[in-house]
Amino acid sequence: KTDTEFEIDQKTGLLSRVHMNGRDIPLTQSFLYYEGFVGNNSVDTRSSGAYIFRPNGTAKSVSPSANISIFKGALVNEVHQVFDDWVSQIVRVYNEERYIEFDWLVGPIPIVPGKEVITSYTTPMKTNKLFYTDSNGREMLRRERNARPTWDLDVQEPIAGNYYPVTSKIVLTDGDIELAVLTDRAQGGTSLKDGEVELMLHRACLHDDAFGVGEALLEEAFGRGLVARGSHYLILGNKNSSNPDGKTAAAQERDLAQQKLLSAWTFLSETEGLTFEQYK
Amino acid sequence: RVDLNVMREAMGVMQHHDAVSGTEKEHVAHDYARLLTRGFDECHIITNAALSQIVQKGATKSEHNFHYESDTMQFNSCPLLNVSQCSFTESRNAFVVTVYNPLSRPVSKFVRLPVTGTSYSVRGPDGKRLQTQLIPVAPSILKIPGRQSNATVELIFRAKDLPPLGFNSYYVEKTKKNIVSEPEISRDT
Question: Which of B14, B96, B107, B172 to mutate to test the interface with A (most CBs of A within 10 A)?
Answer without folding.
Answer: B96
